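BUG-496 | component: ligand-complex export | severity: low

The export step for flavin-adenine dinucleotide jobs runs without errors, but we want the raw record kept on the ticket for reference. Input record follows.
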Amino acid sequence: MSKYVFDTEYDLVVVGGGASGKMAAYIAKKEGDLNVALLEKMEKTGGSSIYAEGQAAFNSIEQQERKTPPKETGTAFDHYPTYKEGYDRYMDYSHQRANPDVVRMQVYNTAETIEIMRGLGIKYTGVMIYAYEQQNELNTFHRPDGLGEHMQEVLLRATTNAGVDIFTSTPAKRILMEDGKVVGIEALDSDGNKLTIGCKAVILASGGYGNNPEMVSRYSAWQHRVAFYTYQCVELQNTGDGLKMALECGADTDNLGALMMVPCARGKQLTAHTNAAGSQPILWVDRFGKRCANEEMALSFMNAGACVAKQPQGIVYAILDADTVQYLTEDGSDIGLGDFIEFKQKLTRLQTELDQDVADGVAWKGDTAEELAEAIGIDPATFAATVAEYNSYCDKGEDPLFFKSKKYLRPVRKAPLYAINMAPSILVSTGGIRVNGDLQVTNINYEPIPGLYAVGLEASGLYGDNYNLDVPGTANGFAHASGRVAARHVIKTLKG
Ligand SMILES: Cc1cc2nc3c(=O)[nH]c(=O)nc-3n(C[C@H](O)[C@H](O)[C@H](O)COP(=O)(O)OP(=O)(O)OC[C@H]3O[C@@H](n4cnc5c(N)ncnc54)[C@H](O)[C@@H]3O)c2cc1C
């Protein structure tokens, strides 16, 4: 007899209504006919998954039908990757930090998502790389029509129609355990009253802790700079609740502190043309006015995020002159940011946005390097010397300092000159709860905690210290696949 009195009972409670949670709930109901409750903290389900533009898969039906990837994307890979290439890339990119069981789960199970979503009516408009001209990327990025938002609408409909009970505005608070096993969960209902649900298994699909500044500060490798972070461009409630609940049950963590981080013009959104301009391979200087990187690495925006985060106070000033403003406006961007800013998109709002940002004091303008430095508040002599040196490399077509390719060497000469303040911006956290290949949460001895699972961004195992854009769509591919694999393990455990 349980010591708890339950208000209601289910076989399975899923915490979080993003891609991973909805996929888990849908499969548990459809394939196992389990009684499933899905608790979502926000008024609507979707989470960060509505922003995802595509998902990774290996050997999918879309890849098989297309046979070869589009050539114009500019990757070194002329074929769709094999399971082995996927596996090796995750392990190599993470310097063996990734969990082989989780990686194997990912490469073998992501293709099924494409089949399921096609069956539910999703059409895929492309299978490619994410950032055009990034040589290292594998062609894994499956881009659905209507992107993540549409995928999540379709999955919500399927989950509801399958008969899952979805409770919105109902945050989960605490997992209830007896004799080392999950027996229930405590939540707050939409009126703020305590709700105690009995269940045999809980799947934590609550999206990591990327929106919890205190946790980012505590765990992140960049913690000493966290005061300077901008907290992303989207409003979410991924505040580490799943991690907290799992830790209370004796869960181990894995690679805690890894983040999906991008550079973003401070205070702006990903779609801003000033943000797009600042993310180009133009001159980047630190807060002392010194050049700080081969700006070409911004082709992988995760690397660019790390590059900005490691600068003093997490500050990079992206510098452009009137010629570059004209180039980006008329010829378009050299680097795209997925669908937020497409490759070669003309930044037609750039001049207007720059004028507004200068007026608002978040970007700066000057007719000379010295004048611009004074406007920003950095040492004019140092900055002028940096610009002069950089311009000499542009003239020679050779960059002996950082080895940037000639085609990205754009001088900073024609007035007016502008500076855009790029800051590290967290999209989501990527390290978290330790799991095994069935997505069971494990303790410090790597033993599963009976009845407890973590999926999507709550589960760790695919990454090293940075998000792996070499395999584009990894997080969203993982969210769907991990939800499904966890649900099937619950079915097997409960039904044999
Ligand atoms: C702007 C942006 C763009 C992205 N683009 C891509 C992309 O193109 N490709 C890619 O692979 N990845 C992308 N990602 C990463 C994306 O987050 C993952 O791909 C994935 O979809 C996450 O799914 P999830 O189910 O783990 O989490 P989420 O979709 O974030 O879902 C978590 C849910 O849990 C809820 N929740 C939190 N706490 C509780 C609680 N206590 N009780 C109940 N519910 C709770 C949240 O409200 C949320 O709805 C992007 C992320 C962002 C922010």
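Assignee comment: Attached the raw record above. The two ends are 24 Å apart (CA to CA).
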